[in-house]
Amino acid sequence: MPDLYAVVLGLLILLPLLGNIFFPYLWLDLVFLFRTICSGYRCYKYIQRNPSFALLDIFLAKVQKHPEKPLILFREEVYSYREIDQRSSQAARVFQSHVGLKEGDTVAVFLENVPAYIWVWFGLEKIGCTMACVNYNIRSKSLLHVLSSCEAKVLLTTPDFQAAIEDVLPTLKKEGIQVFYLSDDSPTKGVQALLGHIKCSSPEPVPVSCRSSLSPKSPSLYIFTSGTTGLPKAAIITRRKLLLVSAMYRLCGVCPKDIIYVPLPMYHSAALLIAIGGCLEVGATFVLRSKFSASHFWDDCRRYHVTVIQYVGEMMRYLCNSPKKDNDRDHSVRIAIGNGMRMEVWKEFLRRFGFIQIYEFYGATEGNVGFINYTGKVGAVGKTNYLHKKMTMFQLIKYDVDQDEAVRDEKGNCIPVVAGETGLLVAKITEVTPFVGYAGDREKTEKKILRDVLKKGDCYFNTGDLLMQDREGFLYFQDRVGDTFRWKGENVATTEVESVLAGLDFIQEVNVYGVPVPGHEGKIGMAAVRLKEGLTFDGKKLYEHVKASMPNYAVPRFIRLRDTLEITGTFKQCKGQLVKEGFNPSVIRDPLYFLDDLEKCYTPMTQQIWDSIAEKKLKL
């Protein structure tokens, strides 16, 4: 009998050891699965309420629970939950009485990172209006397009953007779009200043009846994302999706006592939906910075006692490339949540700044699928298992990059890849995992739907991203497909850039694509150009044209002159080989030009410039 006890005791000791060897992530898988189920159930209960519960209601519940708790720390200013609630009620009343907004209207917000972004958002939520988050870098044609696509009735901005507003104001007036400055005074004729009216308005709660007809499927936000159709598309963020996305912080272990640092622009889903939405969902505090600054980042973290940071990969690279300091590890940050971090940056970040739990995630603003790397395994964008895959119903399918289309078998079905093989990520569209699409044009939405994937009649959301899944269930981002690349944390639509370049009189044909840069995140813009017969390349004219027409992150840094631009049998431009050849002058025999900001001109690309970029001596 003692021998039997010894055997049983030995097995009990051995089982955890064997589990760690053969199932090293089992416990983490179970914990994360439990959190996911609890989060899903919580969201389900919110949605089933009558009227349904929204993120606004969660915020209002937090106001009742801890009204004086700081919600926003901005420079020297502190805004409590109660103050943001009251200011949003004041704004809601002015939006109704003075501006004339009614339930269902859309208001475009053209603001930098300022506290007003939050109380304007909730003010609009309180009267059932949708907020369109406009990238403050866009101008002219792109600005008019985004306002038109979401059918905005009103544009809210500040005098900081006076030049951009006055440039399009005649067109806005013609289209019946009202423009207001969130300021005490207006420097522009025909644009009213709204802040004085808001300050004088009543801070009392806004009746729920003002938003009584809203449902979980009602749009709360429009987040603009670039894609293969060229100009920005208005991704519809419903009240239901906002609840689901804002739950990510709770999944990653963020709690009410945390202080979250948000240096990313709030027109991005990473900042507004995930970071600020997540902060509101758990009832925490966030630090808002106007713009990201590598030199001030850790000083801010120390000053505000930050415990959670929201990142994009490019931001982390900047931090790793900043001058080393003796106090690099002197901070309180325990969690970093974000996406797009390269493996070498990840390793350097941990080595330099100490142990921080990194939750790298994958997800598209408009998508119906997402992953979180909850184990901290370097390089992975997420982890999945049998049960998770059953719930999300995603597939990695074979994709022909050169033909820019999914590979199908003799029956016409797509072909799933095996573990370790790169494939196109697609996710099944169902009632539980819907794809709502984009505002303004059904055609744009349809282009993101892949049909007859595994069987006749099924529908999947096409992410446009190539991923690889290993045998342990870890997912790794490989590349983007089609006509979009990412630079400086922004999506760049090649067709939009092509349309700008094609407007020059000496350009006959243009093919824009993204190329990788040694030591940098994402891909930088490059254009292969065919000149009109008899005309010459004008680097200064091109420089002035692109700088005036598009944001800096979208401007092509390199120009390659070609006698011909190859196309496929279906008349699509060939980009694959051009991307592979990059911008190295020792490889390319075509004339190459480099965007030189000092000379304000595209100048001939040299080996010296290439070496400076490769050695990170030249800033891009």
From TrEMBL:
Catalysed reaction, written as an equation: tetracosanoate + ATP + CoA = tetracosanoyl-CoA + AMP + diphosphate; a very long-chain fatty acid + ATP + CoA = a very long-chain fatty acyl-CoA + AMP + diphosphate
Sequence intervals crossing the membrane: 6-28
Coiled coil region boundaries: none
Enzyme class: ligase
Keywords, sorted A to Z: Fatty acid metabolism, Ligase, Lipid metabolism, Membrane, Transmembrane, Transmembrane helix
Domain AMP-binding enzyme C-terminal, chain residue ranges per copy: 496-572
PANTHER family (UniProt xref): LONG-CHAIN FATTY ACID TRANSPORT PROTEIN, LONG-CHAIN FATTY ACID TRANSPORT PROTEIN 2
Name listed for the protein in its UniProt record: long-chain-fatty-acid--CoA ligase
Organism name: Pogona vitticeps
